[in-house]
Structure prediction request, 667 residues.
Amino acid sequence: MKIKEKTKNINQKIAAVGLFLSGIIVGTTIVATVSAQRETDKVLEIAKARGLNPDHIEAALKTYHPTGMKDEYIMFSSGGHSGQVIVIGIPSMRILKYIAVFTPEPWQGWGYDDENIEILRGDLCDPQRAKLTWADTHHPAISETNGDYDGQFLFIGDKANSRLAVISLKDFETKQIVCNPLGNSNHGAAFVTPNSEYIIEPSQYAVPQGGRYAPIDKYAEQFRGYITFWAFDRAKGRIDTEKSFAVEVPPYWQDLCDAGKGPSYGYAFCNSFNSEMATGRKTLDSKEPPLEVGVSANDMDYLHIINWKKAEELVKAGKHKEVVGVGGFKFKVIPLDVAAKERILVFTPEPKSPHGVDVSPNGKWIVVGGKLDTNVSVYSIEKIKKATEANKFEKTDRYGVPIIAFKDALEAQVQIGLGPLHTVFDDKGFAYTSVFIESVVAKWKLEEWKLVEKLPVHYNIGHIAAAEGDTVAPDGKYVIALNKWSIDRFSPVGPLHPQNFQLIDISGPKMKLLYDMPIPLGEPHYAQVIKADKLSPWLVYPEVGFSPAKMKKSAHAVEFGKEKIVRKENKVEIYMTAIRSRFTPEIIEVNQGDEVTFYITNVERAREATHGFALGGYNVNISIEPGETGSFTIKADMPGVFPFYCSEFCSALHLEMAGYLLVKPKK
Ligand code: K7E
Ligand code: CUA
Prediction:
């Protein structure tokens, strides 16, 4: 009986979809003509042959983009340990670009061009970090104005090496990398304050101040964490390292942060998960607990509440120290005792192996997920401020940091499932939390503090992203589950599986799974989703001879017809132009041992007329986009004849776009 009813239901649904499809097929008239009916039958036949049910058909209709149709949203996803950023169209889930950030990438010429080699070396980077060729990117952050994405810049952190990158969304290229001289790992980077005044980078694994050596049994005395506030100079599009500062914090292994907004503007909230200060087994036969046990011993760790507005004033008043860090670089630090005394740093307990912290769109609520908890814990900024102003603390920690009692800061706990991690929001007052252990997205209602629905995802969701879902004005519509495991979702490709991004429709009363997208590049962590029309990238560079690194006309640009070769002793400079389908000059002869620099200007103004410059044997491939001046330098120590050619298929005579570098041997 029940099965019959169900079948009837499905049949009705299919008929409804059929009617809907016939409506589409006949276009403006809704009259189901005979030919439309035939088309509908054909569609339903395909669906039947492929085993698709009405939900699948609906999902296909909501995600399919015929040729030329563009996506409504753009997602910037971390590329995990690929060290890159992945740009994805939503809802089609098509990959649009990998932005080269910390890792060399030949198509973009990233790491081969002189100017971007310099960016990769980084600012404030010690010699070791200046040589790195990979990173573990975790959290991308789009620049904000008044708490809303403005589409101008993107920031992303490198967990492995405590670095931060600035990407311009004018050309989707990396403009700056900074190293944090205070330590060797971060995690929460990058999170921006509501006007991108600062980019927040918390350290993760505590190390001795400034990256010095200290024995592990001096952990409590000498190891420290840092919450770094990198000052962003929007006009220059660069981090101003001089104006940046850090707040020293106890060695509790800080995790993610989020910036307050509205009533919580001026604050940053950061998690920690090793208030035990566990240091693992110091010897192989040690009876001490291993790290994962030691670090998880306490039921509570500390939510760090940082008043960055006040910290900024203290730095202006000179109440900071200059710490000499890794590589001898100096950095402004507000010492822990000052931070505690001035109430720049205040704690409140947070349960059970905390991970994500996310501020609600109205700025009133701070949502914390605990990896081993079944609740999300919601804190009230009003209560936090009230307790701080009234000096109502239950105690201080061993470093003198005041602690607000859990009950004095907590607004509510919502039981949503085992292992809540990260939370994003929609435009209707709902929150969506990733629940790792249970493998679900949990939808719950803010202010009613009630679980509404759980949707299974495949599998073990880490982060979660929503359309503008961490701004003051989320769009609703879509949530993307950033699942860590795909297991059986795709055709097997060996033991290393891709991750699985799942697109979820949240526009209706029930969440609906629309699409599975494999991510085969690295393990992404966070992603942000911006309305596509907020981006206005260049289609060609604004003028001929443009340097993307300097974001202005290159000093080495050359006009078409004014190409030249300049020799000064054993230095040779080649000022070359590229245009379909010719490099000028084409034949270049140098002597073995010369230092040879090519400055190549792509004089094209046409969209897509990119030329690549590939030089075999010397490890060179640069990308010279329309208007760009690219450059590279080689030491011509290999004698011989080396063909160079254009590595982008730019025209019918693209193979002919070539030349020779002749390196004449020493006698
Ligand atoms: Cu934001 Cu993966 Cu770095 Cu959680 S972390 S999943
Ligand atoms: Cu230029 Cu191919």
